Amino acid sequence: MNATQVKNLTMSESELKAEAAKYAAKKEASFRRCDTDGFLTQWANGMLSEKNREQAKIAANGGMAEFPCLITQDGERVDAEMKTFKCQYTYSDKSMWLLSEKEAAKYGRKWIPMGKNSRVQKKLGLAEGTEMAPAEARINGSGMGYVEVRRLTKKEIDYLAKYEAR
Fold first, then answer.
1. Nearest CA to 53 among 15, 7, 10, 16?
2. pTM for the structure as a whole
3. CA-CA to 51 of 20 to 30 Å: which in 9, 20, 144, 165?
4. At what angle do helices 3-10 and 154-165 cross, to 10 degrees?
5. How far apart are CA 124 and CA 119, in angstroms?
């Protein structure tokens, strides 16, 4: 985690909204100044504006965002991570739950299909739910770029706690 990431995660909602407005204004000024010739600057400022708007939403929720999770019938969270990959048959994106080693031993399988109508989930007494978790907004994408909200790892959460304790 670099200094810019830490700074963005520790800014207030109002500071993030001001940053978003600043980048949106820069994008508009670039367009007025050079029409579409400055497309890269306009794209970058637009992406930074959107990222800061999303981070402001997260800040408004106390640094948390809602994420999908796998739960038992009793409402207990199953230690599983959603993984997305290309299907070998259709080449389309496919998402599945990857269970931790402990959970895989308990349920007898490593991968669980996603979807509210999953027969496997029903057979094992599992369902999909949502939970609030520490999050950050970031720019991602292979050449096109988009803003995603992602869950922070335990290592990142520990790093932030040490940073804020200083």
1. 16
2. 0.75
3. 165
4. 80
5. 9
